[in-house]
Fold:
Amino acid sequence: MLQDFLIPSLLGQDVKDAADFQRRAESIRGHHLAKAGVEMAIWDWLGKREGKSLRQLLGGIREQVDVGVSVGLQASPEVLVKTVGEYLSQGYGRIKIKIKPGRDVGDAKAVRRAFPDIRLQVDANSAYTLDTAESLLPLDALNLLLIEQPLFEDDIWEHHYLQEKFRTPICLDESIITPRHARAALEMKSCKIINIKAGRVAGISQAVAIHDLCRERGIPVWCGGMLETGIGRASNLALASLPGFVLPADISASDRYYKKDITHERFTLNPDSTITVPDGPGLGVTVDDSSLREFSRAQLTLKNK
Ligand code: MG
Structure:
């Protein structure tokens, strides 16, 4: 994907900064993850050139970011409660559980009953339609932070009908793939919270644009996760240090996903359910070459003619 579209059309061009990159890549449709990867490298280079961390370049205000953990569907509500208990004892202060039809209200109730005071939210990953989502109304009694992406990603308008019925804030994730989607969702009153993932929205600069728009309108945002390696995790922490990121991020400690990472640095959970934002130049992490070689499946060398 990257080699087929993005790089050949940009190779040999002088790219000044992230905004300049976005302008040049604008005519290439889609490929958000690839664009986000290239933009991330540009930020790293800019930071190293100026001796500033990504947090400083973006204007982040926090040295530690409040984080939570995302728990997948478990075999039963009992197993779910046990798993959640284990994460709480590791120090995570916010729990998100995945839901789907048949495994929603019962699961959320079981967790809420076992842990009455925790910060709890649910993520449906588009598992409902406007009709079936009505079954989620009892969630309103469980004091959840939010209900994430109940309907399909292109159902921005349909989420508006749902938000009208629910007291709990609806949060959009997969629906928001550009700042334009964010503006449309807010104007349609389709959600009260937005989950921002730089990979989903084609880069850090686009994530910042969505943050700024939401902040102007008093809409809270939080940083989602996409199983990032140490590189993406560092980038997410810098992004989540911006002032509008007021809800805990889905940025877990490295050991939540990887025994071995491709960065020398590993991220650990502080006792107050935060992770420290790297403060070295650029992304503030260094690549472990041997680990990168070990996990590489293909290699491509690009040369400027
Ligand atoms: Mg989600």
User: Anything to note?
Assistant: The domain at 57-276 is CATH 3.20.20.120 (TIM Barrel). The pocket of magnesium ion is lined by residues 123, 125, 148-149, 173, 195, 224 (CB under 6 Å). The radius of gyration is 20 Å.
